[in-house]
Q: What sequence folds into this?
């Protein structure tokens, strides 16, 4: 997660990975074509701004800050989630909890792995040299991560609720195999909900700059940017996608999560030891982190979609707030590993042991027998939640 200025702002865009949103308004200015499917760059159609406009300095600073944020999120996300995948997938006993958090780490890892494309797109002045396939794939992966993450958090909350309310049933039916099947269903649902970006993402040469290609949302699936019919179709599809993203990917899941934790708190009322336990704190921290990181993104999605008149003040708010909200959403994908480490003592101990074992095996000149012995000594039952 600035616009080209005319009577109205045509398209206020979020990051090429995260946001399909833009302000669909009709223009009469001759400075730009009436294009409801024009370039979707990070925060707006910055490529059409004059280098000498009054906000050029601020915009360049925001771009630089965003590149730094993406780079940090990439490094922390790939390393942190890679370690979580390594520990939960190879060093810990397979349990329902490890299945949940392994899948959550995979979603975040794949997303952060594509972040250099976003950083490069901005650093190159919103020139996309990576081709149409990666243009489609990078945006699809971003929303795949969003839907998969929030669905996993929802199912984890429901799982915790069932364990508290119906402990006997949970003990009999909560199995890693069932959790794996549920996780597979979550991935399928997330893929279906993110698949429109495989269709709508497109590339085209910049109308104002030579040797520049933009990666944008072609909601009308048309190259006729002057068509009023295409503009109307694009607006309807854009609104439908923003509403679906908010309702299915944020509002409904968090309503379920709040209900689950309300039930848990009521059930554990008076049991301070259970409510203050590390597993409970971990889950609350992860859910709060997701809410804090993604809520501003959805706020700006609705803001830039619903406004009809762009004032200088609103332009400034969108130009500064949108990249910050987008960067905050990116950062969520690298936060969870640190929450596990700093909140979960058991996971921290297991991570320390796994890293030490990996280094020892890498530098050891002993036989494979020692490796097997080291591995078997580390495979003990340890719970994330």
A:
């Amino acid at each position: 997660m600035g616009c080209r200025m005319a009577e109205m702002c045509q398209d206020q865009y979020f990051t090429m990975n995260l946001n399909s949103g833009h302000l669909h308004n009709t223009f009469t200015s001759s400075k730009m074509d009436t294009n409801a499917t024009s370039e979707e760059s990070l925060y707006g159609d910055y490529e059409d701004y004059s280098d000498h406009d009054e906000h050029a300095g601020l915009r360049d600073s925001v771009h630089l800050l965003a590149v730094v944020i993406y780079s940090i999120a990439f490094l922390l996300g790939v390393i942190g989630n890679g370690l979580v995948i390594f520990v939960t997938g190879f060093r810990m006993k397979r349990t329902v909890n490890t299945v949940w958090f392994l899948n959550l780490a995979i979603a975040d890892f794949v997303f952060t792995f594509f972040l250099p494309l976003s950083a490069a797109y901005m650093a190159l002045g919103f020139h996309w040299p990576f081709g149409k396939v990666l243009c489609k794939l990078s945006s699809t992966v971003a929303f795949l991560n969003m839907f998969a993450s929030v669905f996993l958090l929802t199912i984890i909350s429901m799982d915790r609720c069932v364990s508290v309310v119906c402990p006997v049933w949970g003990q009999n039916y909560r199995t890693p195999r069932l959790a794996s099947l549920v996780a597979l269903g979550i991935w399928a649902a997330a893929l279906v909900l993110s698949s429109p970006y495989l269709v709508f993402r497109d590339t085209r040469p910049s109308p104002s700059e030579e040797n520049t290609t933009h990666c944008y949302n072609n909601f009308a699936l048309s190259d006729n940017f002057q068509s009023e019919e295409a503009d109307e179709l694009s607006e309807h599809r854009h609104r439908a996608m923003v509403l679906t993203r908010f309702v299915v990917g944020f509002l409904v899941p968090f309503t379920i999560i709040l209900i689950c934790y309300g039930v848990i708190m009521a059930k554990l009322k008076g049991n301070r030891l259970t409510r203050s336990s590390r597993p409970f704190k971990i889950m609350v921290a992860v859910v709060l982190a997701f809410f804090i990181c993604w809520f501003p993104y959805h706020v700006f999605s609705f803001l830039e979609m619903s406004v009809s008149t762009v004032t200088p003040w609103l332009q400034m708010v969108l130009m500064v707030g949108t990249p910050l909200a987008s960067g905050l959403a990116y950062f969520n994908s690298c936060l969870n590993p640190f929450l596990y480490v700093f909140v979960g003592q058991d996971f921290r101990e297991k991570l320390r042991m796994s890293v030490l074992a990996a280094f020892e095996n890498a530098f050891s000149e002993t036989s494979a027998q020692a490796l097997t012995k080291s591995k078997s000594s580390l495979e003990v039952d340890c719970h994330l939640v």
